[in-house]
């Protein structure tokens, strides 16, 4: 029981950290250009991952599969962070955290590893999330969606594709999560260095507050969150882990309002409620569908169809 509670606490902490990342990123982009924030986040993460790899008592062999997967996932992850960071710079942290939660219902639609179609109720939950996005993006009246909201919506689509790609490249293959993370952070640092080169003087002369936000984004929202998630999932069920990690948008709204001083209109509040309800509903439907499918396939494997033989 003590171990289970500790695991749950770690997963909730990961969700809280991810939920707080939107306000931290928004505040950092108020002081620095987006490209400088992205380069600093990746560079600090790469240094931290390198230090963790070097500090291991037992060195693990790097495989070509880890490097190839890390290179590809590094590009997709960098794309996600570009869209997220530019998006949160042009919308509220609460909106950003809510819209990105669409990843929960988009990922099963992009994941082709399953052998059976999702039930129609899942698409109903996804439709509820779409209505929620409409309320969030037009919370002050009917108007064209803001640039930040559109970018966060694009980030949710790309992030869902990234998650599906992670599963396709890693499931059933022995890969070290730290190696994968290290390669991805090196890829991101390499991609953003030339783009942020002209902003390096601004980065070097940033205030202590800005550097604190950058270090928090790199060490806590990137390195710690990924490794803690990997550790915690090994000690609990996938269903419980997804339920606890699914509290991320709730934390994003709570932190955006309590710390960032943001406000939700009546329509935006309704959109937030519908978004959280829709993502939880869709998550539960997909989880039940996946469990039922796995059980059915296991029973089919255990009881193969008998073919008649000739005498």
Q: Keywords for this structure?
A:
311 residues; mainly alpha; 78% helix
* Relative helix content: over 70%
Straight-line N-to-C gap: 59 Å
Average pLDDT confidence is 83
Oligomer: single chain
Query: Which segments are poorly predicted (pLDDT under 50) over 5 or more consecutive residues?
Result: 307-311
Q: Indicate the proportion of strand residues.
A: under 5%
The main pleated sheet reads as:
none
Computed Rg: 21 Å
- The overall strand count is 0
Question: N-to-C SSE series?
Answer: HHHHHHHHHHHHH
Number of helices: 13
Region (Disordered): 291-311
InterPro entries: Diverse_Substrate_Transporter (IPR051258), EamA_dom (IPR000620), EmrE-like (IPR037185)
Subcellular location: Cell membrane
Protein name: DMT family transporter
Question: What does this molecule look like?
Answer:
41% of the residues are buried. Helices cover 78% and strands 0% of the residues. With 311 residues, the chain is an all-alpha fold. It contains 13 helices and no strands. The longest helix is centred in the last third of the chain and has 37 residues, at 266-302. Residues 307-311 have low confidence and may be disordered. Helix 1 packs antiparallel against helix 10 and helix 3 (64-89) crosses helix 8.
């Amino acid at each position: 029981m003590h171990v289970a509670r500790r695991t749950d606490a770690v997963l909730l902490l990961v969700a809280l950290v991810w939920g707080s990342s939107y306000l931290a990123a928004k505040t950092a982009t108020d002081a620095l250009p987006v490209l400088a924030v992205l380069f600093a986040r990746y560079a600090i993460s790469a240094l931290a991952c390198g230090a963790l790899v070097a500090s291991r008592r037992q060195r693990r062999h790097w495989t070509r599969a880890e490097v190839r997967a890390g290179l590809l996932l590094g590009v997709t992850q960098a794309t996600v962070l570009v869209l997220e960071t530019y998006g949160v710079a042009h919308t509220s942290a609460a909106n950003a955290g809510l819209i990105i939660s669409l990843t929960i219902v988009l990922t099963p639609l992009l994941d082709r590893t399953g052998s059976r179609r999702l039930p129609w109720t899942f698409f109903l939950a996804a439709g509820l999330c779409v209505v929620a996005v409409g309320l969030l993006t037009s919370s002050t009246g009917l108007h064209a969606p803001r640039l930040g909201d559109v970018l966060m919506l694009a980030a949710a689509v790309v992030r869902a594709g990234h998650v599906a790609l992670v599963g396709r490249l890693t499931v059933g293959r022995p890969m070290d999560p730290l190696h994968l993370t290290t390669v991805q952070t090196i890829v991101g640092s390499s991609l953003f260095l030339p783009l942020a080169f002209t902003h390096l003087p601004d980065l070097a002369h940033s205030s202590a507050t800005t550097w604190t936000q950058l270090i928090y984004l790199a060490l806590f929202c990137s390195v710690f969150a990924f490794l803690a998630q990997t550790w915690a999932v090994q000690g609990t069920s996938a269903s419980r882990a997804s339920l606890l990690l699914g509290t991320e948008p709730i934390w994003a709204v709570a932190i955006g309002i309590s710390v960032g001083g943001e406000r939700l209109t009546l329509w935006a509040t309704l959109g937030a409620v519908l978004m959280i309800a829709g993502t939880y509903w869709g998550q539960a439907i997909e989880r039940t569908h996946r469990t039922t499918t796995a059980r059915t396939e296991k029973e089919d494997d255990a009881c193969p169809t008998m073919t008649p033989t000739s005498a």
